[in-house]
Amino acid sequence: MKLNASLSLILLLALSATTMDASIIKKPPTKLVETSFKELTCTEEDQANVAEIINTMAENGKITLLFKQTHLKEVGAQINHLHPLKFLSSIFSKEDLKASMPQIWGDYFKRTSLLDGLVPSLTREANKGKLEQYLVDFAEEVNVTPESIKPYFDAQDWENLVLYLIHA
After folding, report:
1. Which of 22, 76, 77, 129 would you label with 6, given CA atoms 20 to 30 Å apart?
2. How many domains does the chain have?
3. Can you give the pLDDT of all 168 residues of the chain as single tens digits?
4. In a domain, 28, yes or no
């Protein structure tokens, strides 16, 4: 019995020491590497997936989209890694995809489906300070002036940013 109690005490002390050591040892913060907008990941496959989502949403009605919902979610999962501004530039830097946006925007169901994925992502990146640094390059890529979209960034008004890009 004494052996078990001693063994338990040793284990307790060992675990406590490990926990205490771990809480005392501090790692220096890692330096964030600045990435330019052009260096953000967006492969040809990513662009094809974005095009598939936008074209499918624009060309189909609600009933058809409900049947394609599982497939669209799978395609969407493949582009989850995209920075939200890269997602938007994949749409608004291509005339055919930009031309499809009014069909999506004009339908409440389609618009909210698009915004449900986009708005939280833009807000998360804005809160991390990962949008403002890309404003100028993003504006250039989607052929608008930085001054014209900065108010949307400042207010985190993502819905009106997209609406502005549709009409720009």
Report:
1. 22
2. 1
3. 544 444 343 434 444 444 444 445 555 545 455 688 999 999 999 999 999 999 999 999 999 999 999 999 999 999 999 999 999 999 999 999 999 999 999 999 999 999 998 999 999 999 999 999 999 999 999 999 999 999 999 999 999 999 999 999
4. no
Instruction: Report if residue 122 sits inside a domain.
Output: yes
Tokens representing 27 are: 């790692």
45 Rama class: left (phi>0) / alpha (psi -120 to 50) / beta: alpha
Does some domain include residue 117?
yes
User: What whole-number distance in Å separates Cα of residue 87 and Cα of residue 58?
Assistant: 16
Tokens 């913060």 belong to 29
Which domain range does residue 112 map to?
A: 37-167
Q: Please give the structure tokens belonging to residue 121.
A: 């992502």
Cα separation, 59 vs 66, whole angstroms: 13
What does the alpha-carbon distance between residue 121 and residue 132 come to, in Å, rounded to a whole number?
A: 14
Q: Are the C-beta atoms of 76 and 117 separated by less than 8 Å? A: yes
Distances in Å between the Cα of 37 and the Cα atoms of 51, 72, 86, 112, 132 are 20, 26, 8, 27, 11
37 phi/psi in degrees, rounded to 5: -60, -40
Q: Which two tokens stand for residue 119?
A: 């708005």
